[in-house]
């Protein structure tokens, strides 16, 4: 079994953005969609299964893996924004944005920006600041049962520069859309408001202010910023 399918059933697969493209068109790997057929779940979602097995719904472990894959892709884009020409940066952005679910009513885009048209000399100078880019830390993933969205996962992640990787910056909401995990919304922590509890403001994507009931929590890494560490601990303990 190809390592790209680690963590997924042999018989029932979901496409993983950044790993399998849509139906793996033109890719060098065997099409994982071969001999699969769509199955409607009780929650009206569609997954693709073989006749021998139905894939279980995404769990905390898989949601965490998906979020870490997204953070890897976003980090690669962040590095490219400081070191690579426009065409390479554009490709890195396409990969990271493939993890996002965007609609006309609730668009989602990469939060990494750089003006186009950097000259070679400008890019060489800008590359000196690449040490200001850090991979975000995934602190915790919580599973909720939302009254409208159904099963919903929320990842709490740090900032993307070395000086703020110990504090919350974003909440990323993950939902299976047509059998595929996607980041559907992004909220930012309100730095100037007292915490805990941390206050959050909508940035982009769907508006999901009511999380619904907490089902389970996967605590991965503890923030170093005290107020966020206390909030992290309270969320972790509330699932017990």
Structure commentary:
- With 240 residues, the chain is an alpha+beta fold.
- 23% of the residues lie in helices and 25% in strands.
- The protein contains 4 helices and 9 strands.
- The strands form 2 sheets. Strands 8-7-6-5-4-9 form a 6-stranded antiparallel sheet, with helices on both faces. A 3-stranded antiparallel sheet has the order 1-3-2, with no helix packed on it.
- Helix 1 packs antiparallel against helix 2.
Offer a quick outline of the entry.
With 240 residues, the protein is α+β, with helices and mostly antiparallel strands.
Key traits:
240 residues; globular; alpha+beta
Summarize the SSE layout with pairings.
Blueprint: E1 12-13, E2 37-40, E3 46-49, H1 60-83, H2 86-97, H3 120-126, E4 138-146, E5 150-158, E6 168-177, E7 180-189, E8 200-205, E9 213-219, H4 226-238
Antiparallel strand pairs: 1-3, 2-3, 4-5, 4-9, 5-6, 6-7, 7-8
Helix pairs in contact: 1-2
């Amino acid at each position: 079994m190809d390592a790209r399918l680690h963590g997924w059933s042999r018989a029932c697969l979901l496409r993983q953005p950044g790993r399998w493209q849509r139906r793996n068109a033109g890719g060098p790997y065997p099409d994982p969609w071969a001999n699969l057929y769509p199955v409607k779940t009780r929650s009206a979602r569609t997954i693709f299964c073989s006749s021998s097995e139905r894939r279980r719904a995404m769990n905390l472990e898989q949601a965490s893996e998906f979020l870490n894959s997204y953070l890897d892709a976003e980090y690669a884009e962040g590095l490219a924004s400081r070191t690579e020409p426009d065409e390479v940066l554009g490709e890195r952005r396409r990969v990271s944005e493939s993890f996002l679910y965007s609609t006309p009513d609730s668009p989602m885009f990469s939060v990494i920006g750089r003006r186009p048209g950097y000259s070679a000399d400008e890019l060489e100078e800008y590359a000196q600041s690449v040490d200001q880019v850090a991979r975000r830390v995934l602190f915790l993933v919580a599973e909720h049962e939302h009254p409208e969205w159904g099963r919903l996962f929320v990842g709490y992640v740090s900032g993307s520069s070395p000086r703020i990787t110990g504090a919350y910056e974003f909440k990323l909401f993950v939902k299976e859309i047509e059998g595929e995990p996607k980041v559907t919304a992004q909220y930012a922590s309100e730095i100037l408001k007292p915490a805990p509890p941390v206050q959050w403001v909508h940035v982009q994507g769907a508006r999901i202010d009511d999380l619904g009931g907490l089902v389970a929590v996967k605590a991965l890494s503890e923030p170093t910023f005290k107020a966020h560490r206390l909030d992290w601990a309270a969320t972790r303990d509330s699932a017990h």
